[in-house]
TrEMBL record:
<dbReference type="InterPro" id="IPR014729">
    <property type="entry name" value="Rossmann-like_a/b/a_fold"/>
</dbReference>
<protein>
    <recommendedName>
        <fullName>DUF218 domain-containing protein</fullName>
    </recommendedName>
</protein>
<dbReference type="Pfam" id="PF02698">
    <property type="entry name" value="DUF218"/>
</dbReference>
<feature type="domain" description="DUF218">
    <location>
        <begin position="36"/>
        <end position="143"/>
    </location>
</feature>
<dbReference type="InterPro" id="IPR003848">
    <property type="entry name" value="DUF218"/>
</dbReference>
<dbReference type="InterPro" id="IPR051599">
    <property type="entry name" value="Cell_Envelope_Assoc"/>
</dbReference>
Amino acid sequence: MISRLVSLLLLTYLLGFVIFAFTLGKPAPTNAATTDAAVVLTGGSGRIEHGADVLHDGKARRLLIAGADPSVTKADLARRLKGDGKILQCCVDLGSESVDTRSNAEEASRWLTQHKFHSLRLITSDWHMRRARYEFERVLGAKYSLVTDAVRTEPSFLTLFGEYNKYVLRRIAVWADI
């Protein structure tokens, strides 16, 4: 009986991983609503560049780069993006308070409240979107309209497996109130 239960749990876990791997986050549709703000979570290639494109294309009015290293400046960003420094000065904020996905959501919540925004576009890698959305929805509740906008990547098996485990463990921790 115990071996059957363990087998069932293992099969459920493995099936969950397969579903997770085949249903990664997707880019926002081209006709997605314009939002007050966009929040980019640092840590993956193409995220900041995509956030800058969203801002340039008028799909959001202001951009928070959450989890930025405290030593990074807007001048560093301008060199990296090779773009218009004016838009960086007026419309981009560097958040350096957060160190993980949960604290990214908390930092973004304070920023959204400070600017009296009502909607946001969440930008992160496709493999990270499920957990990021979960954390943002937990912190923000229904106060904000949320558009997810995943940056497409080609994650390795180890990246997917690690992210799946983080997601499952976080869900268990919330469920167990740990």
